[in-house]
TrEMBL record:
The gene is ccmE. It comes from Pragia fontium DSM 5563 = ATCC 49100. The lineage of its organism: Bacteria, Pseudomonadati, Pseudomonadota, Gammaproteobacteria, Enterobacterales. Heme chaperone required for the biogenesis of c-type cytochromes. Transiently binds heme delivered by CcmC and transfers the heme to apo-cytochromes in a process facilitated by CcmF and CcmH. Residues 30-166 are extracellular. This is Cytochrome c-type biogenesis protein CcmE. One of its GO terms (molecular function) is heme binding. The keyword Transmembrane helix applies. It comes from the Bacteria.
Length: 166
């Protein structure tokens, strides 16, 4: 092999290693900024065939409808808690801040926050449905399932009876 071919081969290998390293670093950096979308049923029973459940401390987004009669506001602060439900389960959401004007019971919402022990979402942001005709595809699919079962038919999750301290 002549020196010119060796240089080309070395250059090609160096470029491939550099690209692999760059892609790895970008994916590692993005990993901490990814918020996976879950429905309440997927949080309780697992997502997909592998039944993957979120772990405490994981950032995520949850979509569903606000359960009637579940909204509880603290009269002294901006803290509010409510339940988000779908066709299979209901999850508690705790939020501190001003809720969107369109937020109300039996309205679809998406809450972004951190999954905590006891199947509770500590939300940092709550989004309410803004247009009657538009809905993100994940939420639309969950809502189609949701309308098959009334909110009153849900049993209280075991975490509530254990007293999660909030």
């Amino acid at each position: 092999m002549n020196p010119r071919r060796k240089n080309r081969l070395f250059l090609a290998v160096a470029v491939l290693i550099g690209m692999a390293l760059t892609i790895s670093l970008v994916l590692y950096a993005l990993r901490s900024n990814i918020d996976l979308f879950y429905t309440p049923g997927e949080i309780i029973y697992g997502k997909g065939e592998a039944k993957i459940k979120p772990e405490p401390g994981q950032r995520l987004r949850i979509g569903g409808m606000v359960m009637p009669g579940s909204v509880k506001r603290d009269p002294d602060t901006l803290k509010v808690s409510f339940k988000v439900y779908d066709a299979r389960a209901a999850i508690d959401v705790h939020y501190e801040g001003i809720l969107p004007d369109l937020f109300r019971e039996e309205q679809s919402v998406v809450a972004q926050g951190v999954f905590e022990e006891g199947n509770v979402i500590d939300a940092k942001e709550v989004l309410a449905k803004h247009d009657e005709n538009y809905m993100p595809p994940e939420v639309e699919e969950a809502m189609k399932e949701n309308h098959q079962r009334p909110a009153e038919s849900y049993k209280t999750q075991p975490s509530e009876s254990q007293g999660n301290g909030k």
